[in-house]
């Protein structure tokens, strides 16, 4: 991580490391907490239940990173600080209805147009963001993407650059409900490239745990 930051000429405080704990036992997550990590991400309601019950209540920042079924919004939305997978208006509507205060959301974008991926197409993004004005409990803090798994460095670069440009485009609209200053991009396989392209939230699962197990 430090190496990637140095190479990209970026400061440690520019990038939030989100530990993706979705498949990890509570003991390992508690160990990360002891080491000082405070941003944790789950992708299922059950995982959130388990980890939140076992870990300290006051100072953890919780992220939800997976596809969220509309019917589960009410069980999740008031227990998290960031939601990384806003990809449809029906979901925004339900979040708006169930949230007790504005929720920091990342709009998920499918930058490369892979069929298997969730997220809006770049072409549909601006319209989508404009329509979110109707939902004051949805605050668009940034954009999120998942890069293709078997991509070359060049393709990854292209994908992350694309998301960064879209983020800047939305930010330039200066919509009060969509500051859109952040990008959630970069996972174990590709975070150095994401950091080089300006990511502000990296979501690290496997590599992160491999490192702390040494
Ligand atoms: C699992 C997951 C990650 C972390 O993946 P790793 O390859 O283990 O780092 C990041 N983002 C999302 C949306 C995930 O589902």
From TrEMBL:
Superkingdom of origin: Bacteria
Domain Alanine racemase N-terminal, first and last residues per copy: 14-209
Full protein name: Pyridoxal phosphate homeostasis protein
Record has Membrane as a keyword: no
Organism this protein belongs to: Trichococcus palustris
Any Pfam family hit: Ala_racemase_N
Family: Belongs to the pyridoxal phosphate-binding protein YggS/PROSC family.
Record-linked HAMAP family: PLP_homeostasis
Cofactor(s) listed: pyridoxal 5'-phosphate
Gene3D superfamilies recorded: Alanine racemase (3.20.20.10)
Stored InterPro entries: Ala_racemase_N, PLP-binding_barrel, PyrdxlP_homeostasis
Residues modified as N6-(pyridoxal phosphate)lysine: 22
Key words, A-Z: Pyridoxal phosphate
Function: Pyridoxal 5'-phosphate (PLP)-binding protein, which is involved in PLP homeostasis.
Bilayer-crossing regions: none
MF-aspect GO terms: pyridoxal phosphate binding
């Amino acid at each position: 991580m430090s190496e990637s930051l140095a190479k990209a000429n970026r400061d440690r405080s520019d990038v939030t490391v989100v530990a993706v704990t979705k498949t990890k036992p509570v003991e390992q997550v508690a160990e990360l907490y002891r080491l000082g990590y405070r941003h944790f991400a789950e992708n299922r309601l059950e995982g959130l239940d388990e980890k939140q019950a076992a870990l300290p209540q006051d100072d953890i920042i919780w992220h939800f990173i997976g596809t969220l079924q509309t019917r589960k919004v009410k069980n999740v939305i008031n227990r998290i600080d960031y939601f990384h997978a806003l990809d449809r208006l029906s979901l925004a509507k339900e979040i708006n209805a169930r949230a007790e205060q504005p929720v920091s959301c990342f709009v998920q974008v499918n930058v490369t147009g892979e069929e298997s991926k969730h997220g809006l197409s770049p072409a549909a993004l601006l319209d989508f963001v404009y329509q979110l004005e109707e939902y004051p409990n949805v605050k668009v803090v940034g954009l999120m993407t998942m890069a293709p798994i078997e991509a070359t460095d060049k393709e990854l670069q292209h994908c992350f650059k694309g998301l960064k440009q879209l983020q800047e485009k939305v930010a330039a609209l200066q919509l009060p409900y969509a500051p859109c200053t952040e990008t959630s991009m970069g996972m174990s396989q590709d975070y150095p490239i994401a950091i080089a392209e300006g990511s502000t939230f990296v979501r690290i699962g496997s590599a992160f745990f491999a490192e702390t197990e040494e």
